[in-house]
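Now for one protein, fold included:
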Amino acid sequence: MTNLSGGLTVAWKELLFIGNPNSVRSLFLLTDGLANEGIQETNTLVQMVKRLTADSAEDVETALLEGLRMSSNRAAQLVDSATLGLTPENVQAPVSLFCFGYGPDHNSDMLQALAEATAGGGYYFVENDSDVYT
């Protein structure tokens, strides 16, 4: 099962709470691009990502909480309280999303739209594992 919304929301939350963030923050999504758990519709996923890139800490926190609750029971369990305690400093540096689609049947249109919803994001097709270096 691929829960793009759950994975993105949890990763975004972790990225926002890094102490002393760099002025450039990047999130790498490596996926088969077949959202079949949590939020599955491209437009809804894109709107979620756009809300996660808002300038207001309050708006981003609301988007995070909603994303966690809507995504899956497992992701919802990570929400300890009604607030996460985001501050303006947490959302000051923008987050760029880079989507890497694996497999011949991945949803390239969705991954491209998700990447384009962030400033400086990008989409890449991974034809085979040797295209990705560690």
The mean pLDDT is 84. The two ends are 25 Å apart (CA to CA).
